Amino acid sequence: MPYSPPTDTDTPTDPDTATDTTSCDTATAAPWSYLLNESTAHSYEQQITATAQHLADTIAHTKRPFTGVSPQSLAETLAGIDLEQPLHDTTAALTELESVYLNDAVYFHHPRYLAHLNCPTVIPAAVGETVLSTINSSLDTWEQSAGATLIEQRLIEWTTRRLQLGRAADGVFTSGGTQSNLQALLLARDETRHAMTDGSTDTGTGTDTAAQSALLPRLRILTSECSHFSVTKAASLLGMGADAVIAIPCDEERRMRPAALERALARCHEDGTVPMAVVATAGTTDFGSIDPLGEIAPTCAQWGVWLHVDAAYGGGLLASEHHRHLLDGISGADSVTVDYHKSFFQPLTASAVLVRDAATLRHVTYHADYLNPAARDGEQPVPNQVDKSIQTSRRFDALKLWLTLRVMGANQVGMLFDSVIDLAGRVWETLAADSRFDVVTRPQLSTLVFRYAPSEAPDAAADSTTAHAMNSAMDGAMDCVVDAAALDRANEYARDELAGSGEAVVASTVADGRTHLKFTLLNPRTTLGDVEQILDLLAGHAQHYLTTTAGTTRD
Ligand SMILES: Cc1ncc(COP(=O)(O)O)c(C=O)c1O
What we know:
Blueprint: H1 41-60, H2 71-79, H3 90-100, E1 113-114, H4 123-135, H5 147-163, E2 170-174, H6 177-196, H7 210-215, E3 219-224, H8 230-237, E4 245-248, H9 258-271, E5 274-281, H10 293-303, E6 306-311, E7 335-339, H11 340-343, E8 351-355, H12 398-407, H13 410-432, E9 437-439, E10 447-452, H14 464-475, H15 481-501, E11 505-511, E12 514-520, H16 528-548
Parallel strand pairs: 1-11, 3-4, 3-5, 5-6, 6-7
Antiparallel strand pairs: 2-8, 7-8, 9-10, 10-12, 11-12
Residues 117, 176-178, 181, 228, 230, 281, 283, 285, 310, 312-313, 339, 351 line the site of pyridoxal-5'-phosphate.
């Protein structure tokens, strides 16, 4: 049917007579009946309420974190859906969504989801998510957001105050830790170039002078060997190349060695390269380790190097009564990344980059006549966040945190994070006492990296060669490299089998060159009992692998 624009007579204006698009009766609903406005507000309410009921039911009846569905199987179901044939019915579309998404989604709220840095979310934030997508403010300018801009600014101030960054601090919400790290390093790059050349990068023209271009290949970023890969990605995106990142060795607890940092800074000085930033991590992705900020910050100050602290994960300590001291020294940072969508129990996405000196944000300020023309002399400046952001249109993610703090308060958020940190301590004790597993390091936050590596043969029936080799592998004997590789495969197999069974989801990673398993504990409802059962399941799968497959697939 050809499209015909609405007229006064067929555009519903009375909320009581607005078209209801929840049911199949509306197969011929006019396109404007889907627009959210005063005439469709009632239909919106019905659909959102029905959806919330549906989701509440789904959450209430989720028995496992994952079904173990294969990508092929879901792809087949998805292929059966013809996107050219709309359903014109929200209920039908949600029912269809069950088959391609909801039934088999990975549910982070489930206490046996222990894989990555995905937190269960708090209800006030979910309410905030509904509000922000319904009102749909855009946080670039005041004229597109009004009070939303002020709320975001208050939350930035709240965060910088907890970081003790000082009165000149500022920042902006971003799409996540990757973007926050990128922006921080962009500011560090341009501050360095500004300091070392003629300063003409200030105005947001995007034009580099010859001197600034010549400096680029000499810039270096120093960060620990355990830092997040987004640091290297940022170096590439900023035109410096991945090679510009110097990896500083870590100690046994996976924290940057300050003496090694000192040496690396001195080497830069000697070889004529320019350390543009040190990136310390407060909560490494795998180990949850926190670099010694109290030692690193004075070193950076002494060398005049920008210190960025990636607290994407550890940022939640800002709300913690018991563990806030782990962030001591962070007040010496020039910039900080905080991911509220990790340890503040916020839905994706909610992150911020915070800076000690608001003036450094000028490096992302570009003026557009239609949006944020430069303020004229004598005019009262209008608050706007686009001047501080590398995005233009931007979600009001801050609202989720706002409602969380207004409903729960920061202490309660901190208590949730504290509880998983405490659980991680108990899990470490359990793992350290379990002869079936090796655990890499005692956690500062809430991750554990460990490996099935039994000190006894996995099974009396196992052939003696395998048993001997496995014992030797524990001792690190040279002739057992092959068997260490078998253990790698056994751990990987155990993780896959566990996820496939849907009983639990855990992650894997590589530590000291060997495959390890990883728990990321972010769910306060996960118990030690859950973890012990998961360990038994993992050990069972790994043992099965070694006694059935490994002996015949040695490489
Ligand atoms: C320490 C750290 N920094 C940065 C990131 C990237 O954050 P995002 O996934 O929000 O971009 C992560 C993600 O896990 C992280 O653990």
